[in-house]
Design goal:
alpha/beta, globular, 44% helix, 280 residues, binds zinc ion, 10 helices, binds adenosine monophosphate, single chain, 6-stranded mixed beta sheet
């Protein structure tokens, strides 16, 4: 799940409240490029009696048409490696976002970085925040349209951000005490099963330990495909809704393509976590 710490529209404690209301027994917060929401969510989860796993989601370099997102489940939010990594990732955003805004202005769409930062409300400022302003100002009718026309690859104001290589992202997640998991494999947009298996094998060789089986974009075919891959490469099976609040209106908290994520996914993740580092 995502919160206002990145591109979700509910504060971390509100996401937890919604999870408790939905009857969920466990929740992981996996904001893009930051753990800024983790402390608030952990505290709220403790109070609500919801099991909680801190997490992060990182977009890695990928030399194909799709996108490669890696989840770090169970990371230690205090880890110095994690802090260095998030600083690098935020610097990449600070380079890219003003370029998008400048291009939009050149295209006659008057928006400012100040507005975008206000909309983001936290340290992670991203394209969904820009999209939401474009909708509000009436330049497009939906967030999806904002991406199609302006913000996605091929769009009029598309700029990529500096990404970590998969090796770096996997190593940093592991060094931060987390378990690296391939998120929503459907978004890799692989052409066939053989290509998907090659990509996963390469990631496993670099330290990948799990694959997201249940996700709002994964139908039964993708669920079964990911289960087969998990079995073949001895990977943990995970799942999540990828909830973003009103930035992704078709996603419901606690549901992944209409299903609940099996409790066993969470239990296996927790059992696989390394012992926490003791700091003086
Ligand atoms: P950023 O991290 O700022 O580059 O923005 C990436 C985020 O934008 C992704 O994690 C998605 O949540 C969202 N996103 C990417 N493409 C689209 C799209 N075509 N429609 C809606 N949201 C998108
Ligand atoms: Zn993602």
């Amino acid at each position: 799940c995502h919160s206002t710490a990145s591109d979700g529209t509910f504060a971390p404690a509100e996401v937890v409240r919604l999870a408790a209301e939905a009857g969920l027994v466990a929740l992981a917060l996996t904001d893009h490029d930051t753990v800024a929401g983790v402390a608030e969510a952990a505290e709220a989860a403790h109070r609500a009696g919801v099991a909680f796993l801190p997490g992060i989601e990182i977009s890695a370099e990928f030399l194909h048409p799709g996108t490669l997102h890696l989840l770090g489940y169970g990371i230690d939010p205090q880890s110095p490696v994690l802090q260095r990594m998030t600083e690098t990732l935020l610097a990449g955003r600070d380079q890219r976002n003003p370029r998008i805004v400048t291009r939009l202005r050149e295209l006659g769409v008057p928006i400012t970085m100040t507005e975008v930062e206000e909309r983001a409300g936290g340290e992670v400022v991203g394209r969904p925040h820009i999209a939401s302003i474009l909708v509000e100002k009436g330049f497009v009718s939906s967030i999806k349209k904002a991406f199609e026309k302006y913000l996605a690859p091929g769009g009029l104001a598309y700029f990529d951000k500096e990404r970590l290589a998969p090796r770096e992202a996997l190593e940093m997640i592991t060094q931060s005490g987390g378990i690296p998991v391939l998120a929503h494999a459907i978004q890799l947009r692989t052409e066939n099963d053989a290509q998907l298996q090659r990509i996963v094998k390469d990631l496993v060789d670099l330290g990948l330990r799990g694959i997201e089986v249940y996700h709002s974009d994964h139908d039964d075919i993708w669920i079964n495909r990911c289960i087969a891959i998990a079995q073949r490469f001895d990977l943990l099976q995970t799942g999540g809704s990828d909830f973003h609040g009103s930035n992704k209106r078709d996603i419901n908290l606690g549901l992944a393509h209409g299903r609940h994520v099996p409790r066993a996914c969470y239990d296996a993740l927790v059992a696989a976590r390394p012992a926490p580092v003791q700091r003086a």
